[in-house]
Amino acid sequence: MSAFPPGTILGYPRIGRRRELKKAVEAFWAGRSDLAALEQTAAELRSQTRERLAKLGLGRRDSAIPESFSFYDQVLDAAVTVGAIPTRFEDLRDADGSIGLPAYFTVARGEGERAPLEMTKWFDSNYHYLVPEIGPETVFSLSSDRLVREVEEAVASGFVTRPVVVGPVTLLALAKASDAAPAGFDPLSRLADLVPVYVDLLARLRAAGTEWVQLDEPALVSESLPATPQQLADAAAAALATIGGATERPSILVAAPYAALESTLAVLAAAPIEAIAIDLVRGDVPAAVPGLADKALVGGVVDGHNIWRGDLANAFDKLEALRGLGAAQVAASTSTSLLHVPHDVTDESKLDARLTSWLAFADQKVEQVVTLSRGLVDGRAGIQGELDAASAALADRQSAPGVRDGAVRARELAQSDFSRVSYAEREAAQQEALGLPALPLTTIGSFPQTGDIRRARAQFTRGELSKTDYEEFLRREIDAVVELQEEIGLDVLVHGEPERNDMVQYFAENLDGFAVTENGWVQSYGSRATRPSILWGDVSRPAAITVEWSTYAQSKTAKHMKGMLTGPVTILAWSFVRDDQPLGETANQVALALRDEISDLEAAGIAVIQVDEPALRELLPLKKADQPAYLTWSVDSFRLATGGAAAATQVHTHLCYSEFGVVIDAIRALDADVTSIEAARSRMEVVTDIAEVGFDHGIGPGVYDIHSPRVPTTDEIESLLRRAVDEIPTRQLWVNPDCGLKTRGYDETTQSLRNIVEATRRVREDIAVAV
């Protein structure tokens, strides 16, 4: 078999430079195009990606180019490929037992009474994956040949690429037990049944012309999964013994990104595989272990998580140190897949040129990998010019105006800034000030961003709509949202956020120290993409941001209107953040800006203020030793932002897409008066954790899964709400959707909210009778 290429990447953005895949997929879902048109667009995107990567310097026929396309999610791809779909979707299989693209989308999004797979965050990134459901009843079989066909497609166009598949250990470690599974069932116990399907798949890929295959096994670096590191290492040894021992297979690269591989490196070195990719951005160069002499070590020295140009000389130093471990070959790579970064910084015509010189998007990172691989082949002297240029850019960044702002750094903090009066005192003050009913009804913040809103925003951005006309349009939108909520019967209202393009970018555009992109799209989940802002310097708030819109909305109703802010951790998590100082320092700068905003909202008469922290869980380090420090600074930054609020001001927060049991103590430590959380898609699993830890603040477990187009029935919502009432005292409970309604349409939103109100009415009646 062929040698491993001197340089590669672990994956590439797949939504298209202008979100072509998103548009094609959503057109198919809406019935505006057919399956053939969608497949054609996808094939064109795959072809463009191969050609682009070859042009940037990756080899056409040496397996340097990863075949990492996905219509929706790579974990769903793997689950569908091995036939691991819940029994509620079994009737969607084709006559030959295969799972086609329409069925694939139904598993992802749900349909009618069929709930979709649960969704959560991919390790410590802002990408969301679909959680497989696996039980004793799951029958594993090769149920999709899509990856094989994509390899054949590449071969036909003159490429030998490297297909990327989520490995069997990670697939099972990330799965949840199916509804049919007995209590305590562990999906990882099905490993021996699953592995033969991978053997079959690899044989099919080899026959199609594959020389190398990449098995992604990031579970092997995590200490935050239900399985222990030792259990995961043992599972990897067993799986790879069978997979690697197969005779008809390509060479195997096992990639373990997102943190240091540590002791499991010895397990992979002893396995019958040909290459190991390790993350040298999140981890150090490891010590030598037996078994590397016949393997390639692929050093992930170019940061796949962030957009900074970085220290290329240091990256090459790591590769040279890696050579000292005695491996048969050392190759350069990215630390993770590049799906976490935008396509190309040269697409950004409006960014400051000096800032641009500090950046590297996906294409620039490919070029860095190619440079480093050339250095591995030809020696350091051959790339010294590129190393020096990167070092000069790094030095320029450190000395540029705004990166360090004396006025921001001079602001002193006292311990009292991080806390409010006791929750008991606040609860009494808020009951008197707000006068809310049992099980108060609210939403998370945003209402549907309609085509009219997007068009008006685009027209305003292009100068085709005056500021006066645009603001009048926004006021009409707010009027309609307030009127709708009052008519439906909600208790605490929101203004719908029509003025906000994104919950982070909106604040980034109004805070110093940030820049925003035109085309810096990154996939969040499925067809959804976001444009993370760039936090490059010290952060401050030059003027109030949300007060005008909140006070206008409050003037339209006698009910309480929530002021809506995005919390410091989420602003960091959903931005590309400076890497030249500790995250906690940056978080406190953002928190102080938000603290000032809260003060202004209070002065304007806003009595309920929500500070969203949906990303609290996602930044949690994968290594347990690093978690306490993170939880300390993340909680402190939220408390700094909210610590100046008066006792009668009700502070809400919102979290979603998380295994809340892992951070339940941190959620309690936030000391928000009310916390709303995602719970509908997981069927209220989180309420048990809440009850067990004695959580005594207000809590709103979501009763409406807004990431599916289906409208939940009143009975379904009532069932979820009754489970919450059974486990949590009624005085604490709020009723709300899982998340904001931005991505939904008005018809489904309105009907869902009406069903929520009716379900709540039924439960309230029973509570009143019981009292």
Write the layout of secondary structure elements.
Elements: H1 20-29, H2 35-56, E1 66-67, H3 74-81, H4 101-109, E2 119-121, E3 128-130, E4 133-134, H5 146-156, E5 162-166, H6 168-173, E6 176-177, H7 191-207, E7 212-216, H8 229-245, E8 251-256, H9 264-270, E9 275-279, E10 296-302, H10 312-323, E11 329-334, H11 353-356, H12 362-378, H13 384-399, H14 406-409, H15 423-434, H16 451-461, H17 467-488, E12 492-493, H18 505-508, E13 512-515, E14 522-525, E15 528-530, E16 533-540, H19 547-554, E17 560-566, H20 568-573, E18 575-577, H21 583-603, E19 608-612, H22 627-642, E20 650-655, H23 664-670, E21 674-677, H24 686-692, E22 698-701, H25 714-727, H26 746-770
Parallel strand pairs: 1-5, 4-6, 5-7, 7-8, 8-9, 9-10, 10-11, 12-17, 16-18, 17-19, 19-20, 20-21, 21-22
Antiparallel strand pairs: 2-3, 13-16, 14-15
Q: Which characteristics define this entry?
A:
globular, six-stranded parallel β-sheet, 12% strand, alpha/beta, 26 helices, 771 residues
Overview of the structural elements:
With 771 residues, the chain is α/β, with parallel strands linked by helices. The chain is 41% helix and 12% strand. It is built from 26 helices and 22 strands. Helix 1 runs antiparallel to helix 2 (35-56). The longest helix has 25 residues, at 746-770.
Arrangement of strands in the largest sheet: 1-5-7-8-9-10-11
DSSP summary: helix tally: 26
From the N-terminal CA to the C-terminal CA, the straight-line distance is 75 Å
Approximate helicity band: 40-55%
Average of the residue pLDDT scores: 95
* Beta-strand content: 5-15%
Oligomeric nature of the chains:
single chain
